[in-house]
Design goal:
The protein is α+β, with helices and mostly antiparallel strands. It has four helices and six strands; from the N terminus they run E-E-H-H-E-E-E-H-E-H. The longest helix has 15 residues.
Length: 167
Amino acid sequence: MTITKWVDTPVNNRGRKVLHIEIATEFSESLLSELNVLIPQLSRSSGPMSKDDLSEIIADRDATLIVARDESGTAAGMLTLIVFRIPTGIRAWIEDVVVDQSARGKSVGSYLVQRANEIATAKGAKSVDLTSRPDREAANRLYVREGFELRKTNVYRFSPNQVIGEG
């Protein structure tokens, strides 16, 4: 079962296209294939998702996989929202936001982020965080338009397979 939010998106003066914002609630081979088309557009270093990867994300009670579909039903973008409780409250994190090259500039990213913020708010999140590389200029402009503020903080990453002191 997929929960769908229907959104009219402006296209031009002659008409409107419909964009479907869905929450993935069950595994399908077609969903896996579509997301594996999007992933390389986000990260060249990440390999394709497996059936188990996608099934685990969908089954994770803290994760919400949000998919935007164009009027033909093709996945035009996705993001993953994680909502979690910590001692200071409920927080949310947006990860892996990607819009298909053919759908960029058509508000797909905005609708994905808006839906993620709605879900996070409904679940009681005190804040929603995300990171974006500075060279992703269009994405950074999108986040500011959607109400995110640039924070002055350091982001650190620990990679278990990396030798300490190696880089």
